[in-house]
Here is the input.
Amino acid sequence: MLDFGAEHVALATGCHWRRDGYGRSNGLGIDGFAGNARVFTPDDILEGRLPQGRIAIFDDDYFYLGSVVAEALRKQGCEVVYVTADDTIASWSVHTLDYRHIRKRMAELDVEQVVSHNITGFDDAGLHLEDVWSGKPRTLACDAVVAITARVPEDTLYQQLRLREAEWADAGLRTVRCIGDALAPGLIVHAVYEGHRYARELDAEPSGEVAFKRHFHGAEPVSPG
Here is the structure.
């Protein structure tokens, strides 16, 4: 990167999905997930490493990806159980008008749904679930789990460049910024916005302000009359 000769560098190196179950519903991960060959992530599915048999998808993301993975596995002949701690599948998709389409497609594909259940562990006996409202446990038999929980930024290159900041000037490098999922994993729309914003602000001095107008109320009391 230092030999390339660029004055400004934007690193959009993406992110990867966690395998340990850590996410919004499980702040310490899930027992039995880390290092388990029967735990897959969306990265595995995208790279063609597919589980076989009866598969549980744990959707702790609440958007469209759980349904996409479910459809991909059903088309490969897998039996799919869609598990989420939320009260419905793909709840965030109501904001993008995808919810009804997702529900209809899951019904067409005969995808079993287990909602309002979190995962407490995974072992040879199966996937151990707990009703988020009653606390009642149950065990779900499955051959593998696809964990859609949280993502980790791929920022190694950015961190390495930061460690060599003393060499930037000699290489003609003025700025290095980490953007998109490499900075903070989000939706596709967030990544698009980050790229657009970087281009707009490339020649501008950092303002230190948020990118929208704010109104601050004064602390002084208003006198009557």
